[in-house]
């Protein structure tokens, strides 16, 4: 519950005092505004640096998994095939059973490594953020067997996002869906993009077990901090809340509170910041 109070500073000043002080306060107010803008720009800069470092780390880990772990897994597969070939015909049946277990475990390890490499690599954004998220949502549904939907606003600006902005939106959606698969115990997940004049809002919901009040403050939630950094890099915000609480806050008194379980992730990005690196003529057309 928001308990903050806004107090108008000049509310109780006489009219004459307000007029006398207006000239003196104009310069400090302007200075404060400039300092706030400077700090916001610094937050965007630091967040962008963090995001670039994360992407570089992802590329490095993906290469190591593919070239190092992948090669070792391939060598292990050949070794197991050799053991199976050389196994005597009169070998105890437990040997063949153990080999079968080892092969199944190796298959699982290879698939996990392949999936990790695919997630770590930056997606192809040739089809734009809409195409990339539609493709990823389909793959996510096939892999997890969760009912997954993707709905997107019809907004021409989505088709012309710079690559870094599109990647930020994609990575937040990717991390939110992965969190659902790992922790939510959900049956369905929904991804939605909404747009307004000033903001692009990514909303990811599920019908799982929801989040605890202190989930965001627990140690080890590197995924959430990365999502926050990607939003902050584009003058945005990240909010994670329980769907039940959200339904109550919106006045849902239908009695279906138990059905409104799950989590809502809202990631908001500012169009001005996302389009800042677009060519000037195109940016003017998109913002008009």
From TrEMBL:
The keyword Transferase applies. It catalyses: ATP + protein L-histidine = ADP + protein N-phospho-L-histidine. Its EC number is 2.7.13.3. Keywords: ATP-binding, Coiled coil, Kinase, Nucleotide-binding, Phosphoprotein, Transferase, Two-component regulatory system. Residues 29-56 form a coiled coil. GO terms for cellular component: membrane. SUPFAM superfamilies: ATPase domain of HSP90 chaperone/DNA topoisomerase II/histidine kinase. Residues 164-273 form the Histidine kinase/HSP90-like ATPase domain. This is histidine kinase. It comes from Paraburkholderia xenovorans (strain LB400).
